[in-house]
Amino acid sequence: MAGGGFTTGSSDVIFEAKITPAVIVSCIMAAFGGLMFGYDIGISGGVTSMPSFLKEFFPQIYEWIQAPKNESNYCKYDNQMLQLFTSSLYIAALVASMIASPVTRKLGRKLTMLLAGIFFIAGTALSALAGTLSLIILGRIILGCGVGFANQAVPVFLSEIAPTRIRGALNIMFQLNITIGIFIANLVNWFTSKMEGGYGWRISLAGAIIPAVMLTVGSLIVDDTPNSLIERGFEEKGKAVLRKIRGVENIEPEFEDILRASKVANEVKSPFKDLVKSHNLPPLIIAICMQVFQQFTGINAIMFYAPVLFNTLGFHNDASLYSSVITGGVNVLCTLVSVYFVDKVGRRVLLLEACVQMFVSQVVIGVVLGMKVTDHSDSLSKGYAMLVVVMVCTFVASFAWSWGPLGWLIPSETFPLETRSAGQSVTVFTNMLFTFLIAQAFLSMLCHLKFGIFLFFSAWVFVMGVFTVFFIPETKNIPIEDMAEKVWKQHWFWKRFMH
Q1: Kind plus residue range of the DSSP H or E element containing 280
Q2: End-to-end CA gap in the chain
Q3: Most buried of 120, 208, 237, 474, CB within 10 angstroms?
C-alpha cells in the first residue's frame, strides 16, 4: 500500500494515499486564511493601546490616561466605540458567512478563498490609510467580509483535501496559522509602538497586506477539492485532482465514495432546510455548541485586549505589549502540540485535559486579581504579576492545543457533503456572533465584573467539560464521508436522531 491506507466505508475498502507535495502545498496556501484572521485578531488589541492611535481617534480615553481621574482602573478603557473598532470585523464576518455558504457550494472552495483574499486586500488598505474613525471602521468591516469567506471555505477545503490519517493535523494548519498571525501581530505592535511620529499604528494595520496577498495568490495556484468538483458535476476533473493529491493510481474506492456522497448532495436543493432534519441535528448541535464554548472560554477577550488587559493590571505600556508577545508565542508552540497529538490520542482527550487546565488557571487569575488589584491600586507586585502572566500562558497553552483548533476541525469533518457548506456557514456564523458579543462587551464586563470576569469564564469552562464527556464523540481516523455510520449511529445519545 503506497504511503499507508485506511479502512473505510461500510464495505471496509482501502483508501490508498500518500502525503503528496500537492496536498502539502494546497494546505499551506489555504491556511494563509488563518494567518490573516489571526493577524486581525492580534493587531487590534495592540493598536487600541497605542497613545498615538487613541489621541487621534479616542481623545477622551487618551486624556484620561494622561491625567487619570478618580475612576476605577478596571474601567479606564470602557468605551463602546473603541470596542466597535475591534468587534465591527466580526459582525461583518457573521453576515458574510451566510453569503459565503452558497458561493462555496456553487462556485467551489477555491473561488471562495480568492474572494476572501480580495476582501482582505481592500480592507487592509482602507484601514491603514483611513483619516477618520468611520473610515477605519469601514475598513474593518471589509476585512470582516474576508474573514467570513475565508473561515467558510478554508476548514472545509483542508478537511476534504487531506488523507484520512492526517486530516486532523492538516486541518489544524488553519488554527496554527491563526496563532502565528496573532504572534506576528503582537511582535509588530511591540515594534511600531516605539516609533516616533505617531504613525506606528498605521504600519501595524498595513502589515496585514502580506498574508492577504499570500492567500490571494495561493487561491490562484491550488486545485479545488475533488469533493467540490464532483459535487458541481466536474467528475473527470475531480478524479484527476484526486489522483494528483493522493499520489496513487488506485483511487477508485475513494472516488466512488465521493461520487455517492455527491449524488445525495445534489438531491438536496435547500441545504439549510436539510440541516434541521433529524439526521443532521447531531453535527449541527455539536458545531453550534463548540463555537459558543470556544468564545466563552474567554480566549478572545485575552487575545483582543491582551495589551489593554495587562495595562489595566498595572503593567506599563512596553511591558504589556511584551507580555502579549509571550502569550502569542505560547499560542503558536502549543498549537503545534495539537498538530502532533490530534490524530494520535484523539479529539476528546485534548478537549477534556484542556478544560481542567483552563479552569484552574482562570480561577487562580481571578483570585489573585480579587486579592491584589483594587479600583484605584493599579499595580501588582513583581511576584504576583509574574504569576498572572504564567497563568495566562497556561490558559492560552491549553486552549491552543484543544478548543482553538478542534472548534474548527470537528464541525468541518462531521457534516455530510450535502449539508457541509451550510453547516460550515452556521459554524462560522455562530463563531462570529459570539466573537462579536465578547469583543463588544469585554471591556464593559471588565469594568463591572472586575476580577470576577475570570470566574465567569471559568464557570463556562466547567460546563464545557461536562458537555464533552457526554456529547462530543471521537472522530479520529473516521473517513469524512462515513461519519453517520461510524460516529453518530454508534453514539449512546445521538443515535436516536439517526433514522
Answers
A1: none
A2: 36
A3: 120
pLDDT per residue as tens digits for the range 323-348: 777 888 898 999 999 989 998 999 99
Give the DSSP H/E element, type plus range, for residue 468. Answer: helix 452-471
Helices (H), 108-249: 109-129, 133-161, 167-192, 200-206, 209-221, 226-231, 235-246
Bridging pattern class, strands 13-16 and 5-8: antiparallel
Question: Taking a C-beta distance cutoff of 8 angstroms, is the pair 439, 432 a contact?
Answer: no
The DSSP symbol for 258 reads H
Locate the domains of the chain by residue range: 14-497
Contact present, 254 and 246 (Cβ < 8 Å): yes
Residue 8: strand pairing partners: 13
Residues in Cβ contact with 103 at an 8 Å cutoff, skipping those fewer than 6 apart? 111, 112, 115, 149
Between the CA of residue 428 and those of 102, 236, 255, 376, what are the distances in Å? 14, 31, 28, 40
What is d(CA 441, CA 318) in angstroms, rounded to the nearest whole number? 25
**Helix ranges (DSSP H) in 401-416:** 403-414
Question: Higher-confidence residue: 162 or 66?
Answer: 162
Single-letter code of the amino acid located at 261: A
The predicted-structure confidence for 265-301, as pLDDT tens digits, reads as follows: 888 888 888 999 999 999 999 999 999 999 999 887 6
Q: How distant, in Å, are the alpha carbons of 46, 146, 368, 476, 487 from that of 84?
A: 15, 18, 30, 39, 41
What is the predicted pLDDT for the residue at 201? 92
Q: How far apart are CA 380 and CA 401, in angstroms?
A: 30
For the segment(s) 14-497, the CATH number from 3.30.1230.20, 3.40.1280.10, 1.20.1250.20, 3.30.70.80 is 1.20.1250.20
Task: Tell me the CA distances in angstroms from 121 to 147, 181, 205, one per residue in order.
Answer: 12, 16, 11
Residue 126: how many CB atoms within 10 A of its CB? 19
Radius of gyration in angstroms for the set of CA atoms belonging to the chain, rounded to a whole number = 23
Instruction: Give the distance from CA 146 to its chain's centroid.
Output: 13
Q: Strand, helix or coil at 165?
A: helix
In this structure, what C-alpha cell is assigned to residue 111?
A: 473561488
Burial code of 86-113, b = ≥16 C-beta within 10 A, e = fewer?
Answer: bbbbbbbbbebbbebbebbbebbbbbbb
Q: Give the C-alpha separation, 221 to 134, whole Å.
A: 36
